[in-house]
Specification:
mainly beta; three-stranded mixed beta sheet; two-stranded antiparallel sheet; elongated
Amino acid sequence: EDIFSQFGDVFGGHFGGGFGGGRGGKRVNRGSNLRVKVKMTLEEVANGVEKKIKVNKYVACKTCSGSGAKNGSAFNTCNTCKGSGQVTRITNTILGAMQTTSTCPSCGGEGQTITDKCTSCHGDGIVRDEEVISINIPAGVAEGMQLSVNGKGNMGARGGVPGDLIIVIEEVEDEHLKRDGINLFYDHYISFIDAAMGTHIEIPTVDGKAKVKIDAGTHSGKVLRLKGKGLPDINSYG
């Protein structure tokens, strides 16, 4: 939007409308996104989980309710931009007069200034604090996958809008099972006698133990498949 608004400035203010609407008004402060890693066990990956995480971030100042102004303080229209949040300059070039519009340097694009700033946030409208956020993580997520929680990032300055919270999945290696996509593998060692004569064994799965029959004459490296004992596919119901 910022890039194409400059084209709109040059060509009469209409070019930017097709690319997000251009600037066209006072600036709205948007808080930055936050990125946190969340560790998950294989069991949590298999079943999905609700996790509560404590995040240190910028929140709205309680003293001034996020306005940045001291109680009773007034907001004055910016003298530089006359409240528009923008300043326009006209430059004479060999092609003629070129008009450019940019964010007002005096008010930062907000169109107004504060006569007396809040002593708690020093006029920013935001302060550092901790917030406990509850997130629902679906089953089937994988290492490095990112989930976005809208509006749970840093709060924007002076009544702005918050950014997003980006959750990065980090898998905790399981003691017994190895993951390959949505399949799980388990290596089980048996004696020569059990391989020759056959036996029944008990193996771990994500939801408890499972009994497996080893046929007589089984060779080393034999792969046995337990249907439906792997992980769910996050993109389907399989």
